[in-house]
Amino acid sequence: MAKWRDSLERRFKEWRRLEYAVEDTLAGRRVLRVSGPRTPRLTTPVSVAVKQAELGAVEEKFGAGLACFCLGELTGEERTAFLKAWHDRLESGATVVLADRRGEGCETPDQLRDLLTPHARILNVEVGPTFWWARYERA
């Protein structure tokens, strides 16, 4: 039981560290937040928040974007389509943050760089034991 509790506490601390980094990165910006089907609570202030399935209804452009738990359960083709649709709603030069659980196709820094490089300038990828997050400027 103690091992399970320690594991849960480590994941919680990892998520909190990610949450603080996201909050600092997006502070003062007009943010479009897209959340996947099982996104944990985030304290980061946002301008517009939508579920992944509702992204197509967003017509305006934003200076920053936050997508949490949107890629991990998608196939490679679905990831490409989501990223295109999402980046179409972000201004060139927008500050972008993605975060998700490690999963197939999104496990290593190299896989994430390959996925995000077509959309990014100044790409920073961090991979923890449970989660990964990427910050960049939209190309």
CATH topology: Rossmann fold
Number of strands: 6
pLDDT averaged over residues: 89
Structural class: alpha/beta
Q: How much of the polypeptide forms β-strand, as a percent range? A: 25-35%
What is the name of the CATH superfamily? Vaccinia Virus protein VP39
CATH architecture term: 3-Layer(aba) Sandwich
- Terminal-residue CA separation: 47 Å
* Radius of gyration using CA atoms only: 15 Å
Order of helices and strands: HEEEHEHEE
Helix content: 25-40%
**Which CATH C-level class is it?**
Alpha Beta
> What's the overall geometry?
globular
Strand order of the largest sheet: 2-1-3-4-6-5
Number of domains: 1
Unreliable runs: none
What is the overall number of helices? Answer: 3
Q: Biggest β-sheet, characterized?
A: 6 strands, mixed
Can you describe this structure?
There is one protein chain. This protein has helices at residues 2-26, 76-87, 109-116, and strands at residues 31-35, 48-51, 62-68, 90-101, 120-127, 131-138. The chain has 139 residues and is of the alpha/beta class. The chain has a single domain (2-138), classed as Vaccinia Virus protein VP39 (Rossmann fold, 3-Layer(aba) Sandwich), CATH 3.40.50.150. It has a six-stranded mixed beta sheet with strand order 2-1-3-4-6-5, sandwiched between helices.
